[in-house]
Amino acid sequence: MVDEGTxxxxxxxxxxxxxxxxxxxxxxxxxxxxxxAGLRITSAIPPVFAAYCTRQLPDSVEGAQLRHDRAVVALLxxxxxxxxxxxxxxxxxxGIEIVFPDAPRVRLYAGWAYVLVRxxxxxxxxxRASEGRWVWKGALPxxxxxxxxxxxxxxxxxxxxxxxxxxxxxxxxxxxxPELDARTRRVTLGEDATPPGDAAY
Length: 201
Hints:
The protein is α+β, with helices and mostly antiparallel strands and about 200 residues long. The protein is built from 4 helices and 10 strands. The termini are far apart.
């Protein structure tokens, strides 16, 4: 997907023979202004969606992570009309793949630095691959949302799960997917979103 950019003079970077728009603080302001510190789903997801869930990462067994990532992207892609996605790559430290290491960062949550890129499902699955990435976190970006903000997936700094907000149909699709159902837990805005057996730090 080639991005033509929005707004005056967007910051662009070249990859795979195409130019890609780098996001700014304005593109994540809707998350930043609504996220609240704590153990609830709103620590990662603004309280603007019809339904919410957490999705635990798979065990590190051969093939499990790839099946998991493909299932997640397929459900997200089916949940909205074709459109660009914003992909956020959290800069954990040296050696972590952030795709465009020279790109400007946006700050989100506890001031964490992300490289935010306007791309799509194919790039979400392929750009990070396994190089320089914590195996247990997989290849997916740490932050994914479509241009129309109809859903949001966010994996915080050292959590072993992702938080998801979206339509009732999207959350139900995670609950009913044979690859993801056992690791998906629906949550409400008022409850501790930490999955059983995990710990939030």
